[in-house]
Design goal:
Helix content: 55-70%
Number of strands: 2
Structural class: mainly alpha
Largest sheet: 2 strands, antiparallel
Strand content: 5-15%
Number of helices: 7
Shape: elongated
C-alpha cells in the first residue's frame, strides 16, 4: 500500500511548474517583459529624483516630501527584483497619487494661488505686487510692495512640472510591469492572458458546403410551408368531423 501511495505521488505533476510556484510565493525572476521595462522605469525614477532636488533647492518642501515617498517605495521594491511583484500595487498607487498632486500644485501656481502671483511670472526673476501685511504688534493691516519671484521660484516651478510629468510616466511604466506580472501568472495557471483570443482555422471548402446546406434547408422549409398551405384559394377544413350512423 505504501508503494502504491508513493507511486501516486510521483505521478502528480504541478500545473505551471516553477512559474506557478513563483507567482504563489511572490518570489522568482521577473518575466522577460518586466526585464525590458525596468530600465525605462529606473530612468523615470531618476528624473523624479532630480525634480526632488530642484524642489529642495527652491524650498518647495511640501512637494519634495510627497515626491520623495515615490522614491522610497520604489527603492524598497527594486532592491530585490525577485520580490518586485509584491510591491507593484503600492508603487502604482503612490505614483498615481503624487502625479495628480503635482498637477494640482502646478495648476495653483499658474492661477496665482501658490508661490508666484500668476502664470506670466512662472519663470520671472521679479514680480513686485501689492501685498497685505499684518503688523504682529498692533494687528493692523497695511499694503506694501513685495517681490515674490526669484531664481528659487523658477527652479521650483520647473521642478514641479517635471515631477508631475515623470510621476505619471512612472505610473504608466509601473502599470505595464503589473500587467506583465499578471499575464505571467495567468500563463502559470494555464489560463489565457487578457486580450488572448484562440483562433480556429476555417476550411473554405467546409464553409462553402455548410452555407450551401443552409440554403437547401431554407428552401425545403419554404416548400414545406407552401405545401401545407395548399394551392391559392383552398381553405382546409378546420371544424368538427361528421360521423355517419349505420
Amino acid at each position: 500500500e505504501q508503494r502504491e501511495r508513493s507511486s501516486d505521488r510521483s505521478m502528480v505533476a504541478p500545473v505551471g511548474g516553477d512559474g506557478l510556484a513563483a507567482s504563489l510565493s511572490g518570489r522568482g525572476p521577473p518575466p522577460p517583459e518586466v526585464e525590458r521595462l525596468l530600465p525605462c522605469f529606473k530612468v523615470a525614477l531618476a528624473f523624479v529624483a532630480l525634480s526632488i532636488a530642484g524642489e529642495c533647492a527652491a524650498e518647495y518642501w511640501n512637494e519634495a516630501i510627497f515626491d520623495a515617498t515615490t522614491l522610497l517605495i520604489a527603492f524598497m521594491g527594486l532592491r530585490d527584483v525577485n520580490q518586485l511583484r509584491n510591491c507593484m500595487m503600492c508603487i502604482l498607487l503612490i505614483t498615481l497619487f503624487n502625479g495628480f498632486q503635482d498637477l494640482i500644485t502646478l495648476i495653483t501656481i499658474l492661477i496665482g494661488y501658490r508661490h508666484v502671483p500668476g502664470a506670466k511670472y512662472f519663470v520671472s526673476l521679479e514680480c513686485v505686487v501689492n501685498a497685505t501685511v499684518i503688523d504682529p504688534g498692533t494687528h493692523a493691516k497695511h499694503s506694501e510692495l513685495h517681490n515674490f519671484c526669484s531664481w528659487q521660484t523658477i527652479v521650483g516651478n520647473i521642478a514641479v512640472t517635471t515631477a508631475a510629468l515623470f510621476q505619471l510616466l512612472s505610473f504608466r511604466l509601473a502599470w505595464k510591469i503589473f500587467r506583465a506580472y499578471h499575464d505571467a501568472d495567468m500563463e502559470g495557471f494555464g489560463l489565457p492572458s487578457q486580450g488572448f483570443t484562440p483562433q480556429v482555422p476555417i476550411d473554405p471548402t467546409a464553409a462553402a458546403q455548410g452555407s450551401a446546406g443552409n440554403r437547401r434547408q431554407a428552401g425545403l422549409g419554404q416548400s414545406n410551408r407552401g405545401a401545407a398551405q395548399g394551392p391559392p384559394g383552398f381553405q382546409p377544413f378546420s371544424g368538427q368531423p361528421h360521423r355517419l350512423s349505420a
